Each structure stands twice: as structure tokens, then as C-alpha cells.
Amino acid sequence: MSIVARRTAPGWGDRYALGFGGLVVVLLLAPVVRDVLKVLGHAGDPGRAGAGLALLGLLYAGFLTLARVHGPLSVSAADASWVLLSPLPRRRVLRRPALVLLGVGVAGGLALGLGLLATLGAPDQGVLRLAVALTFGLSMTVGGLAVAVLGQASASWDGRLRTAIVVVAAAAVVAAVVSRPVGRAVQGVPVSGAGAAAAACAVATVAAVRLARSRLERIHARDLLEASTRVNRVATATTLLDPGALTWTIEDAHWRSRSRSLRSRRWPSLPAAFAVAWQDWVRLGRRKGRLAVLVASAGLPALAARAMDGTAPVAMASLGALLVAASCAAGARRDAGDPAL
């Protein structure tokens, strides 16, 4: 019997973690479900619908970006050390991570579908519109993760995924600029047309999942090891509530790939307050794309205020400020936490 087949059954700790995680997901989705129940029988405002579609599009683009950057398939540290490099079938080793990834896609798809219905409203045929929205959400997330798995196994698919992310982000920006015409156009689509489009997306998703399942054996062990290292670092940073560590993880991954190397330069003569932040300024200046994303993200709270009520815009502004601080002040925090400096 193989090592994979002899794995022990989940204990009470695993069951507790699974149950607690499910409870957290239910609590997070409860406000969305409440908003969906409110919109049944009512048509949403076109301007708010367009802004909501733009926000959902940006969130979906970020979802695909995270899936591409962090794997999406990875294994535990023990499997990466012992099982991954063994002569076991790669598909069998990746069966459990693939199922976990599928669960993440289903949960994200349900949230996306409910958010889509809450944004557009349901003036009539509420049950049918709910089914169409959930089908769209599941197809987008599960299909996107399947393409990300294909991108992990093939450079050509990775290029297609990057193109899809750019297209989704550009469409979201257009919807944010001209939100009312976009919202009116999407709300004017008949239910039959939306159902046909959702069915086509579902068929394409099934094909992508089947193709990704057949390509699991082609994923190189080096890529899986790197993805596992990144995921473990992210989990550690999340557990320790240290978002600054994520910046260093991304930066290390950037310079480790393609055998990049840095030239040694003299440290500039700056005051102490600026010297510890110099490395972050240099990194942001060298990575102009990240700097552009940080500047553009300043408009997300305003977009959220147009699309949603309540404390969501305030929470998004706080989260954005935390991410900017983690990206621009990681060097200062690292030096401050080092007793040797």
C-alpha cells in the first residue's frame, strides 16, 4: 500500500477546524444572502448596478491574480519533502489539493453569484435569476481556477490567463467610469439570453476542469515546491498578522525567478527616518506596475460607496491602507524588529 493510501483518518482537531471554517463562511455569507432576499422582486438602480459590476470584476481579477501567483496547486510541507519527489503518480499526490481547490472555487462562486444577483436585482422570475447568477458565479471561479492549474502546467496557458486578467480588469474599469449605461445594458438582458450564456459558461467550465485534471501529471515538481513555499509563507504571515512579510515573499519570488540578480550599490546618505524606507522606495520605483496598482486602488472605496451601503466602504479603505503600509513600510518594520540594528 502506498504512502498516500496509508494516510490516517482525520481526527477531532481536523473536524473542529473544518466545522469552524464552515461556520465562518456561513457568517460571512449571511449578509449577502440577506441582501439577495431583499432584492427579490425589485429592480436595482442602473448606476449602482454598474458600480457593483465594476467592483465584482475587480475582485474577480484579484482572485485570478492570487490564484496565478500562489499556485494555485500546492502541497503541505510534509508532502513537499517526502511524497512529491517520490515515484508516486503525480495525479494521486495532487488529488487532495485539487479537491481543496475545487472547494475554494465553489465557495467563491456562490459568493460571486449572490453578489451578482444582489447587484442587478431580480424584478421577476427570482428563482430562475438566482439559478442563472449562481451558475455564472460557479463557472467563473471554478473555470478560472482550472485555467490557473493549466497555467501552472503550461506557459502558453499562463499567458492566456494573464490576458484574461487584463481583459477583466479593463472591463471593470470601463464599467466603473460609465456605470449607469453599463448597468442599464446588463439589466436589460432577458432571462432566456442570460440562461443560455450561463449554460455555455458551464459547459466551458466542465471542459476546462476535465482538461486541467488530465494535465496534473505535467506540473513540474519545482513549480509545486515553489507554490508550496509561497503558500506556507502566506499562512505564517496571516497567522502572525504580519502583512509586511507578504511583500518580502513576493519580492523574493520575483528575484528568484528567471535567475535575476541585483547589482551592489552604495547606500545613500539619508537621515535615519528615510534610510530605513529607502529600500521600499527603490523597490516601488523598480516595480512600476505595482506602484500603478497601489495608486489606482485609492478609488476602490469610492466605488464601493457607490455600489454598497453600510460599513463596507470603510472596511475596504482600512484594508487598502493596511496593504499600502505593508508594501511601502516593510523595510522600516523589518529593521525595527531586528535587535541587532
How would you describe this protein?
- With 341 residues, the chain is an all-alpha fold.
- The protein folds into 2 domains: 18-239, no CATH class; 242-341, no CATH class.
- It has helices at residues 12-39, 46-69, 77-83, 90-93, 95-120, 126-153, 155-177, 179-187, 191-214, 221-239, 244-256, 272-275, 278-286, 288-296, 300-307, 312-328, 330-336.
- Helix 2 packs across helix 15 (300-307).
- The radius of gyration is 22 Å and the shape is globular.
- The chain crosses the membrane at residues 16-37, 49-67, 98-121, 127-149, 161-179, 191-212, 291-308, 314-332.
How do you describe this structure in short?
InterPro entries: DUF6297. With 341 residues, the protein is mostly helical.
The percentage of residues in β strands lies in under 5%
Oligomer: single chain
Poorly predicted sequence stretches spanning 5 or more consecutive residues: 1-6
**Count of helical regions:** 17
* E-strand count: 0
Tell me the helix content: over 70%
Instruction: Tell me the distance between the termini.
Output: 53 Å
Radius of gyration: 22 Å
Coarse morphology: globular
**Major sheet size, sense and barrel closure:** none
- Please state the average pLDDT score: 77
- Helix and strand element order: HHHHHHHHHHHHHHHHH
* Total tally of structural domains: 2
**Class derived from helix and strand content:** mainly alpha
Keywords: Membrane, Transmembrane, Transmembrane helix
InterPro entries: DUF6297 (IPR046264)
Pfam families: DUF6297 (PF19814)
